[in-house]
Amino acid sequence: MEPGGAEPPSKVFTFKDDQRSPPVCLSVSIPEVLDPHYGMYVWPCAVVLAQYLWTRRETLRGKKVLELGAGVSLPGVVAARCGAQVTLSDGAKTPLCLDNCRRSCEANGLLDVGVLSLTWGEVSPELLLLPELDIILGSDVFYEPQDFEDVLLTVAFLLRKNPQAQFWTTYQERSADWSIEALLHRWELSCVDVPLETFGADEAALAGSTLPGNHSVFMMVISTKT
Ligand SMILES: C[S@@+](CC[C@H](N)C(=O)[O-])C[C@H]1O[C@@H](n2cnc3c(N)ncnc32)[C@H](O)[C@@H]1O
Fold this sequence. Notes:
There is one protein chain. This protein is α/β, with parallel strands linked by helices. The protein has a single domain, classed as Rossmann fold (3-Layer(aba) Sandwich), CATH 3.40.50. Helix content is about 25%, strand content about 25%. Strands 5-4-3-6-7-9-8 form a 7-stranded mixed sheet. Strands 1-2 form a two-stranded antiparallel sheet. Helix 1 packs parallel to helix 3. It starts with 9 loop residues before the first strand and ends with a strand. S-adenosylmethionine (SAM) binds next to helix 1.
């Protein structure tokens, strides 16, 4: 509840699988805050990553998942509702985003999701003390070129500690000049592009939301070079 008693407005996302008989679906409710800061509302990339998680839901059960730069945490919430053991994180300097992570968990009845501050590029006690991980999530974390290396430093650190883990990430192409290729090479990471059509995300509307629209969103899986 907000000071003054007003609940923040929520967006509902409904993921469906009509191929199943009977069809299955999952609805999650994500409170958003009317504030221009990046981590206060759902970004198009989050809907695409959440759709990927939904299509992989059977492999997620019991998996240890960490979301970086979670903001209002749509992907992490979907992973938790699909049975993963989820920890949500956002930057230490944006405590309001950490409040958003908690609020999104409460809105979906998730009582056992951890929330902690993890600032990209910082080797903090929180980072060092993280338990074993299977999957790291990052939706729209490559949006400021000056932060790209910090994101990958954190990811490379976690993947070295958990060599079987993968970083599942979606990004929005905002400039054709931006690339993480050289940084992937520097941090000895490999990357596989996952075409959106392979998981039903090549649509302007997903999960009942028109957020993806005509944005150029891409999905990739990053792992350590073998
Ligand atoms: C574009 S928003 C994406 C939010 C959410 N993942 C989504 O897709 O809806 C970027 C997120 O990264 C977080 N962030 C920005 N800089 C960060 C940093 N240096 N360390 C950790 N998180 C950071 C922001 O607070 C925000 O939640």
